[in-house]
């Protein structure tokens, strides 16, 4: 008697990942939709065999939405949203492989793989002149104030000019890269009265100013290794007459008279001249017409 026996396959094997722990380094300036972990590193196999269904989750709070898989049957991981190193530089993903679709009532076997993704800082920001004020919540844009200073007419200062709110100084906000920055004057000084030190940002004078007009210099800070990353700061230099004398009052003592019952903001009158308002005046020998 010949007996034919058919062996029925039972779902008794779990999917198996080739690697259960992976590490990927992703540059900060990676383009959206770019593949960051290829399919070959993530695919699972099943000895039964079955169709594998994948699902990707994010472990680290605040980093969800940046990475996704291409499809339920394609575990290839791609970048879904632009990265920002200042927001986070490490996240952990968990990839699930199931031999039945999510929600199936059949017995489902599951495997997991952990993917650690490190964000590598890229040269994405231009230099910042300091001090500066952040204009957005994530502190990715910083606006500097105008630098100001004064020089005397017909005089050449032999030292770097003193500026407010501080000396000309810029940094690379991609602080891990910390690219070298050089300075130059690109506008506002047609007569070449001023120079800026390329390395330090110190502002000095080449010759004396001959007019009381103000100079509004444009100083550029540029990264040495990437000239397309630059910023411009305004520097206002006021030319003034030399100030050798302090102001002085015309008299050391002023005497005035007030009357009881006057309304607020009423005049104080000169003592001995009740019809003449009391005036307190000062003069300065450096500014005879002021």
From TrEMBL:
A Gene Ontology term for the protein's cellular component: adherens junction
GO biological process: adherens junction organization; calcium-dependent cell-cell adhesion via plasma membrane cell adhesion molecules; cell migration; cell morphogenesis; cell-cell adhesion mediated by cadherin; cell-cell junction assembly; homophilic cell adhesion via plasma membrane adhesion molecules
Ligase keyword on record: no
One Pfam family this sequence matches: Cadherin
GO MF: beta-catenin binding; cadherin binding; calcium ion binding
This protein's UniProt keywords: Calcium, Membrane, Repeat
Predominant localisation class: membrane
SUPFAM superfamilies per record: Cadherin-like
Compartments it resides in: Membrane
InterPro entries per the UniProt record, alphabetical: Cadherin, Cadherin-like_dom, Cadherin-like_sf
Domain named Cadherin: residues: 18-129, 145-249
Xref: SMART domains: CA
Keyword Repeat attached: yes
Protein's name in the database: CDHR5 protein
Organism the protein comes from: Cepphus grylle
Lineage, top ranks: Eukaryota, Metazoa, Chordata, Craniata, Vertebrata
Gene name linked to the record: Cdhr5
